[in-house]
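Issue 218. Parser rejects a valid record. Input:
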Amino acid sequence: MPRILPLFLFATVILSLGVSQVVGLESVPFPRDPAYIHDPNQVLIDQLTQTDIPFEFRPAFPDRLEIWVSDKEFQELAGQGLTIEWVPEEDQVYWETPKGVAEEFVTPATTYPTFEQLTAFLQKKSSDYSDLCRLESIGQSVQGRDLWFLRISDNPDLEEDE
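Output the parser choked on:
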C-alpha cells in the first residue's frame, strides 16, 4: 500500500501538468467576424474541414465561401495567398438578422417554413405576378395537404411546349 501512494501522486502531478498546458492553448480565438474567401476550390474546403474555422458553401454563390474568422486567422489565410475580405457593411445585415424571422424567405432561415407559410408565400407571388403565374393544386399528399404547382410562363393559361 505505501508504494501505491507515491505512484499515484506522481501520476497525478504528471497528468495535471499535461492538462494545464492543453488548457492554456488558445483553441478558438474570439471574436470571430464574417468574411468571404473568393474562388474557393475543393482542396481549400478539405483543408478548412480539418480546422476549427466555421464555414459555409452556398451553391447560390459558387464564387465565394462564407467563413467566420478572428483577425489572426484572417491574416494567416491571407498569407497563404487566398483572396479573402471582410464582409462589407451592407451585407452584414444578412449575417446578423435573426434567422427565421426574415420576411418572405429573403435571408437564411434555421427552420423550414410551415405548410401555411409556404402556401401564403406562393399565393402572394401568384397574385403579385398574376400575368406570369398560376398556382394550381396537382393533388394531395398522404397528409391531406395540397401539392402546389406554380406555373410560371409568359402565357400561364396556355399549355405550350417551351
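Fixed in the parser; the record now loads. The longest helix spans residues 4-24.
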